[in-house]
Amino acid sequence: MSAPEHLSKDQFSVLYHGTKSVNIESIREQGLTPPERVLNPASWHMLTSVKSEAGYFAGKGGAVLTYHVPADQADAHLHPNRGGQGRALHAIKKPLPGSMIQGVDQL
């Protein structure tokens, strides 16, 4: 995956989200948001820096979305990193736009 044309690799984070394939179109159109039933969205981790983790949550027949999140927009969209041991794990503050999706891998 290459960086968005206007950003160098140190100006964005690569993060992954696993989902059911039927959700892809609505995520592209409406952005990635926590499910409505979640009482505390800050604790609902939806993005990881480890692609295989996203694949696990997508499940068989699901998909992994690859996001390039610009560094200057990360604070507005993402709660602080809750990962550790060299991996990122983020909850979402506000919808992550579909325009940040840089790839979709069907499982």
Description:
The structure is a single chain. This protein is an alpha+beta fold and about 110 residues long. Helices cover about 20% and strands about 30% of the residues. It contains three helices and five strands, in the order βαβαβαββ. It has helices spanning about 25-30, 50-60, 70-75; strands at about 10-20, 45-50, 60-70, 90, 100-105. The protein has a three-stranded antiparallel sheet. The protein has a two-stranded antiparallel ribbon with strand order 2-4.
Any key phrases for this structure?
single chain; 107 residues; alpha+beta; ADP-ribosylation fold; two-stranded antiparallel sheet; disordered N terminus
Percentage of residues assigned to helices: 10-25%
CATH overall fold name: ADP-ribosylation fold
Overall geometry: globular
Helical segment tally? 3
CATH architecture: Alpha-Beta Barrel
Strand content range: 25-35%
- The level-1 CATH class: Alpha Beta
Helix/sheet category: alpha+beta
How many separate domains make up the residues? 1
Q: How many extended strands?
A: 5
- Give the N-to-C terminal Cα separation: 18 Å
Order of strands across the biggest sheet?
1-3-5
Mean pLDDT: 89
Record the SSE blueprint.
Layout: E1 12-20, H1 24-30, E2 45-48, H2 51-58, E3 62-70, H3 71-77, E4 89-91, E5 101-106
Antiparallel strand pairs: 1-3, 2-4, 3-5
